[in-house]
Amino acid sequence: MSGRLRIDVFFDFICPWCLIGKRQLERAQDLLRLQQPDVEITTVWHGVQLLPQLPALGGVFADFYLKRLGSPEAVAMRQAQVQQAAMAVGVPIDLSRIARMPNTADAHRLLERASVLGNSAQCDVLLERLFAAYFQLGEDLGCQETLLAIAQSCGFDPDAMVSFLQGDGDPYVGNEAGASSGVPSFQFDHRLTVVGAQPAEALLAAMCEALLESHRGRQPA
């Protein structure tokens, strides 16, 4: 079956399930290309700031999770769960290196600006690098200098980015409605939505169903 498939993904950089879901989506897309090579896939990433109440400089990562989960044992259990799920999809998350829980408003503004200045391949590289900065390298995504250095390493002119980074802690206003049930959220052709870091097979099934519905919609009455 030929056709086009648009995938809208709603995410935040500080959510490990969003990175895990990204890997599951990539695997599902590879499977779809094998099954239906004539389908043209377009993926659009929408930033959703999960913690807009954080101060501009963020907070202490360990303190944040201790307050949220209630005890060191609960934190250790949750982190072990995340590590296990990440390793299952080949993502080497290193939570021990994360010192700050960042305010991600400017990170989302950076990616939004990159989508205007660059092509989809460049934006994909930047998106991947931002995830790696947080979950593998322990870099502070709330720091403007860090964000601009990351953008430059991905081929963007930091001078064209800097005016879009506010650094004042104001919430990032994106398409929050698309993530009303949580992140990651995957919307296929504005027809079907799958929430959570679901297995690639579940995402593939949703893609195929969306394509089938689109095909039916094009048939003459």
Automatic annotation (TrEMBL):
Alphabetical list of CDD domains matching this protein: DsbA_FrnE
Annotated DSBA-like thioredoxin domain residues: 7-206
Pfam families assigned: DSBA (PF01323)
What top-level branch of life does the organism fall under?
A: Bacteria
Membrane spanning stretches: none
SUPFAM superfamilies per the UniProt record, alphabetical? Thioredoxin-like (SSF52833)
Q: Which PANTHER family match?
A: GLUTATHIONE S-TRANSFERASE KAPPA (PTHR13887), THIOREDOXIN SUPERFAMILY PROTEIN (PTHR13887:SF41)
- Identification of the protein by name: DsbA family oxidoreductase
Report the source organism. Answer: Pseudomonas cucumis
